[in-house]
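Incident review: delayed structure delivery

Summary: a single-chain prediction request sat in the queue longer than the usual turnaround. Root cause was a stuck worker, restarted by the on-call engineer. No data loss occurred. The affected request and its eventual output are reproduced below so the record is complete for anyone auditing the incident later.

Affected input:
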Amino acid sequence: MRIGLDIDGVLTDMHGFIFRHAASYFKREFDREAVAEDPHNLRAIFKCSEEEWIAYWKKYFVKYILIEPARKGAKTFTEMLRKDGHEIFIISKRAYTCRQDFIGKIMRGVVRNWLWRNGIWYCKLIFCDSAVPDSKRTVCQDNHVGIMIDDEPMNINAVAPVAKAICFDTSYNRGCEGENIYRARDFDEAYILIREAGGLV
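Output delivered after worker restart:
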């Protein structure tokens, strides 16, 4: 079976990265403490404006894409799926990767290098346009992906009509439910769903 796997928020703990670095950043830059521990909207943690949020990401985006490691268990998860005979398609909406210029080429290279450094096994890497809400659905449909693992409700809801969707559990997707949508708190649970859950495979 072909299994789609998201990067940001699934292979990485993007939520954890943002909170760890934003706490010191907003304290240092604006003398602002976190106002909520784990809200659905990460920007609401520090009540930051759109401009402040963009400024934060300009400072930390390169650090995130280069240094943030894969989530615990990601490497083993992909190895186990490979041994079981599945094909893994990395399907990502990572910023700038769809640009058809030098920046896009660099960003795609950064992703490939990160996957290699973290030992993430895959058959195919596909970049989706982040400006198109249902771009992952089209990719799953065109590539006959049977299961997609993602954390973003918009992507999960878009994919569910054409493939089984495993929602990688986070605070911001707790309300994401419906037909063809399953939930996993970690890679162990995702593996069990793929291998054993009745009706999923």
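Verification: The longest strand covers residues 87-92.
Action items: add queue-age alerting; document worker restart procedure.
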